[in-house]
Amino acid sequence: MNNFDMRDRILQQLVRLEESKTDFLDHFPLPAGYEERRSVAILMERYVHRLEKLLFFLTHDSGFRLNFVIIDSTVTIMNTQLNTLESYKICFPDNSEVDAGHISFLSPIGRQLLLAPIYTNVNLTVPDGECEYVVNQITFS
Description:
The mean pLDDT is 92. The protein is globular and about 45 Å long. It has helices at 3-25, 34-60, 108-113, and strands spanning 73-79, 84-91, 102-104, 121-126, 129-140. The chain has a five-stranded mixed beta sheet. A hairpin with a 2-residue loop joins strand 4 (121-126) and strand 5. The protein folds into two domains: 3-60; 73-140, Chitinase A, domain 3, CATH 3.10.50.30. It is an alpha+beta fold.
């Protein structure tokens, strides 16, 4: 995907995040979900800030390569204990389809992977406990 197309998709994400912020946060009803809701609001603010920086690089760097996980990217992670690979497409909640590997950025794993840099270790909390993974590849198409 060229920088111009990626830039358009990032702009669409920024618009959608702004328009749907309340709807996304409503996935975590008050008062029980207060801490989780607050955490997601902070993550969304950080994400918007990173996308704004990304737009600058897409405009000024023709050789730009995505080096952190964003919505609509596919991330391949390696379980460091089992040496196995898993791939997930991070998406908006209405596009999630767990059986196809499409997970919402609001899901527990989606929130842990969003903004993760390539080649870094990520400790993911999963139903069986915590597992260490390495972010092996990030693609955006």
